[in-house]
């Protein structure tokens, strides 16, 4: 049986600083791992017995895994919203994976981060605000793949979020990364999440996406639109305040060389949707040049969408498909729809967030190597009091630059 003095003595060694920095309450261990045979056992603490913690998988220590392994078990002394903290360590490096407990049971996939060899696994529960170890064992990783831990925040746990894909950072992707998981509120009284927000950053370039949550699940490909290199992908909660609450973040590498920021689909700009591609082809069927195609798309949006004077500022689920279906929207919707149709026609286009006497959105398309502006909202008609009057105006397609700049102030491009 291990002695407390020996455990505390290890903390004085420089090679053990990472492990000893973890918030652990030391307990006497039931089993010992002093030799190879004992290493194959799962080492449970006294606290495991007190709290009713059991592991069904793995059934023994020293199991083997390629890049990950499965844990499954139960915690009798648990309530809604409780989370296990599973720490995976090797050669002084550590990463944590939160595991949600539902109805006193848990099951999750745990990554092995640090290359081939023996990884130490430590499972902890939180008790009275303190993290307490309940079990330890080892897993032998059989692959040489190096991975990095996802960084999770407290809101990940309190909102019942589980990220199934990706399990780790540090991987390479061909232009897009899949975010997939579940959101199960710990309490039935809690309002379910409708969406989360994703940022994909490369240097000073940032793209923003809405991640819908439907039937307690989310699944969406996030484009890496700024060309090859390293990206930070972060997930946030929109608390409808002046700031976002972090959920999780991880790093990835994009292997696609081309910078496709103005051609890839985005939130509300579903340019890869078959319905939108078919519509863009129909709209531009008689156009013989990119300029004529862009003009035809501008006219279609301006004449087929009416301004919604009653719409409120809650537009996380807006998009081109929704706008075309409902045939109404605000400047945000006009711009999303125009950009989507232009990109579906392989014309580079971007959403401009600016000011035209009040916050406003319009579009720029790249034609003949130049960015030309268009404002399909102003080209759609005008308002008289509480009524919108449809009146197509072609002058807001590729307008005189000097005149347009007097009314439209462009502070930023949004991706």
From TrEMBL:
InterPro entries to which the protein is assigned, alphabetical: Papain-like_cys_pep_sf, Transglutaminase-like
Keyword Signal (UniProt): yes
Signal peptide start-end: 1-21
This protein's UniProt keywords: Signal
Top-level division of the source organism's lineage: Bacteria
Protein name in UniProt: Transglutaminase superfamily protein
Keyword 4Fe-4S in annotation: no
PROSITE patterns membership: PROKAR_LIPOPROTEIN
Source species: Baia soyae
SMART domains: TGc
Domain Transglutaminase-like, residue spans: 323-378
One family name in Pfam for this protein: Transglut_core
């Amino acid at each position: 049986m291990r002695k407390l003095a020996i455990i505390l003595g290890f903390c004085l060694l420089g090679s053990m600083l990472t492990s000893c920095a973890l918030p652990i309450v030391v307990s006497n261990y039931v089993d010992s791992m002093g030799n190879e045979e004992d290493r194959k056992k799962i080492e449970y603490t006294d606290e495991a017995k007190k709290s009713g913690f059991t592991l069904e998988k793995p059934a023994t220590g020293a199991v083997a895994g390629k890049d990950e392994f499965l844990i499954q078990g139960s915690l009798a002394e648990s309530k809604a919203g409780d989370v296990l903290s599973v720490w995976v360590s090797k050669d002084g490096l550590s990463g944590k994976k939160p595991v949600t407990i539902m109805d006193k049971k848990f099951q999750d996939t745990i990554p092995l981060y640090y290359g081939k060899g023996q990884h130490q696994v430590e499972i902890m529960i939180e008790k009275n605000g303190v993290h307490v170890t309940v079990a330890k064992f080892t897993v032998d990783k059989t692959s040489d793949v190096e991975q990095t831990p996802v960084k999770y925040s407290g809101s990940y746990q309190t909102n019942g979020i589980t990220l199934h894909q990706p399990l780790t950072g540090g991987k390479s992707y061909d232009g897009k990364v899949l975010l997939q998981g579940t959101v199960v509120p710990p309490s039935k009284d809690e309002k379910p999440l409708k969406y989360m927000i994703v940022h994909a950053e490369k240097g000073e370039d940032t793209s923003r996406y809405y991640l819908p949550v439907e039937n307690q699940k989310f699944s969406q490909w996030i484009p890496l639109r700024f060309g090859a290199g390293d990206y930070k992908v972060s997930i946030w909660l929109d608390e409808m305040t002046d700031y976002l609450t972090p959920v999780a973040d991880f790093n990835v590498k994009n292997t696609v060389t081309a910078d496709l920021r103005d051609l890839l689909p985005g939130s509300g700009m579903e340019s890869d949707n078959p319905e939108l591609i078919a519509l863009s082809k129909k709209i531009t069927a008689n156009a013989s040049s990119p300029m004529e195609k862009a003009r035809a798309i501008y006219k279609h949006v301006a004449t087929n969408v009416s301004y919604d004077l009653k719409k409120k500022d809650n537009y996380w689920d807006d998009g081109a498909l929704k706008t075309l279906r409902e045939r109404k929207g605000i400047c945000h919707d006009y711009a999303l729809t125009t950009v989507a149709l232009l990109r579906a026609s392989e014309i580079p286009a971007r959403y401009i967030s600016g000011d035209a006497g009040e916050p406003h959105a319009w579009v720029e398309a790249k034609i003949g190597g130049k960015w030309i502006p268009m404002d399909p909202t102003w080209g759609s008609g005008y308002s008289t009091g509480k009524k919108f009057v449809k009146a197509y105006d072609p002058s807001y397609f590729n307008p005189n630059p000097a005149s347009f700049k007097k009314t439209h102030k462009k502070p930023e491009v949004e991706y």
